[in-house]
């Protein structure tokens, strides 16, 4: 490894290109966490240059003291074999965020300095932001060539004809009332462009705008970039000073240092990458996995760009209108599992690592566990990547269900019950059983029954990770078919922490447990919604059920029943009150609506009443019966004139009859919708 110290201008002074390997993550630095602090450090050195110049003008000896240099960090790179007609290049192993940001700073500084009259600085910067060529490939002119997600932005921001107004127009922050997130690279460019202009006007971004308010100029600038299409200059009425621009250039040329580390043949890029990755924005476990896999591919002499494009690029990139691409935000969005949230891509690799290693791992140890599994034997990269991509699609259908098929409905039930520990088992079943097979339907039906029955019975989910590891190992390693192995493990479990509840326990808890309070509303809603889905058949024309977020739980006897004369119990004893408090929150008294009833109906009488002039006033029963949901067909019974504890018990039994059809132990086949609908309606 060859270490060398350089400055910002020195880093870009020779006609080299710094290439970001296609398998590295895109640009992720944010204005608050990294870009703003970096600018503060650079501004500090520029201020020091101005102070030294001021001292020199007074003739004081303090001006002779060398200025302290600021160390920005390191950049690790490896030479790219040269080809005729190509710019000499280095691949950036570590420090791509830093090198990209510094290049954006020079581009922004050049544009800002053009506002000065007769300044040589824009021309001085031209040679630092563009390789002169000629070259056989146009992209060789760019000093930094990012991953595919940032190439369009780099082309536009590097174009000498691009002005700030062009950037505002091309990358707006809003379309009418809709907010649009500007690419992070564009946000950084705009921030640094306005920071340079502000510095030339003597504005410190860390100063408060108003002594009586908290926001700084930097805060105001960030808000403007994020909210408004056009970004207003800070203190634009103030004159630009050439001497301040010169001080900024001198700081970049002499007083801000970077350590470059150029790898030699015997150096291991992956080991160095893992050691240094803690700098800057922390890498996701998936970032480490990606770099490990593709550096391994490079070692084997594989065609890395083709492998990346074919298998990995969908994790990082998404096509935009036209021929462009941008960063794929889907995989970076947070997904909750248990009490914690993770980026979806890390949650996928957490579950995928468990699937492949057959071992429990911690979310914080995903990369180490993945690497240990990978190194156990020689891997066929193409085969492994193809399996990984297939599993990622199965994971996506589980965490982001779409459509009305049984796979999507199973996924919705799992999400509502919050049992992400079943994910590796699901991935294994999807890998081994055809999506339209009877075997997969049976396996997922067994899992749905197991999870729902345990949830309704209030049995613990602690230890699910260990139990479902045993299930996974059976599905993957047992001599029998996966769906048979799954059922055998579920049926063999006898400990209370693992048992598949029988009909007796399930029936008792279904009818007598205050699930709304103890199971929590979101899970209760998920169970009721699953019944609604199962009841849909050809008579409905469609099995579409509203999303859970569009449904609300309605208590037929209101929760505030003690204050409502219609639902009070005459001469109530304490025992009666406790029984009522339980049944009010049980399945028999709960239903779903696509929109909540207004309070006067929700708390009003159950039966129809006579209003002024003998006009019939519809009661709660009739209002519920008007619902399009099959769960509410029960309330269409004309003989149902009173809603009390006995009526609740009768409906509990009706819903239980449906639940036993939908979640039998074990599952004997799909429940007929007509039978489920008939049970729900009380027939």
How would you describe what is shown here?
It is a single chain. The protein is of the alpha+beta class. It folds into 3 domains: 2-276, no CATH class; 334-506, no CATH class; 508-680, no CATH class. Helices cover 50% and strands 10% of the residues. The chain is built from 28 helices and 16 strands. The strands form 6 sheets. The chain has a 6-stranded mixed sheet. The radius of gyration is 33 Å and the shape is elongated. The chain starts with a strand and ends with a helix. 39% of the residues are buried. The mean pLDDT is 88. Residues 500-657 form the GmrSD restriction endonucleases C-terminal domain. It comes from Pseudomonas frederiksbergensis. This is DUF262 domain-containing protein. Residues 10-294 form the GmrSD restriction endonucleases N-terminal domain.
Q: Report on the biggest sheet.
A: 6 strands, mixed
Give the proportion of residues in helices: 40-55%
Low-confidence stretches: none
Summed up, the domain count is: 3
Give me the number of helical elements.
Answer: 28
Domain GmrSD restriction endonucleases C-terminal: 500-657
Pfam family, one: GmrSD_C
Protein name: DUF262 domain-containing protein
Domain GmrSD restriction endonucleases N-terminal: 10-294
Summarize the SSE layout with pairings.
Blueprint: E1 2-7, H1 8-11, E2 17-19, H2 31-58, E3 70-80, E4 89-94, H3 96-113, H4 121-129, E5 144-145, H5 148-158, H6 164-170, E6 174-175, E7 178-179, H7 184-200, H8 217-227, H9 242-255, E8 256-262, H10 269-276, H11 285-299, H12 304-316, E9 317-319, E10 325-327, E11 334-337, E12 340-343, H13 344-357, H14 366-374, H15 381-399, H16 406-417, H17 423-432, H18 438-456, H19 464-477, H20 482-492, H21 503-512, H22 515-518, H23 521-535, E13 552-555, H24 574-584, E14 590-593, H25 599-602, E15 609-610, E16 616-617, H26 620-625, H27 645-662, H28 673-680
Parallel strand pairs: 2-4, 2-5, 3-8
Antiparallel strand pairs: 1-8, 3-4, 6-7, 9-10, 11-12, 13-14, 15-16
